[in-house]
Amino acid sequence: GCEEYKLPGELLDGEGVYEGQKLCPIHKKPVEILSEENYFFKLSEYSEKLLAHYEANPGFIQPESARNEVVN
Question: What is the reported pTM?
């Protein structure tokens, strides 16, 4: 089966035994319609405070290589 997200416009209308369902355009099988609520965090508004926190708490981000990625 297909394990990728599809946009509504990419789906096919089912016919025959799949009447009333939306189908994957590749496999021609019914898809599972999911929805989720998302939130976005505007990191740029907090960058100074976060960098100060990381400086004051050097062990806050582990491992050190991850800390270096975040700080630089």
Answer: 0.52
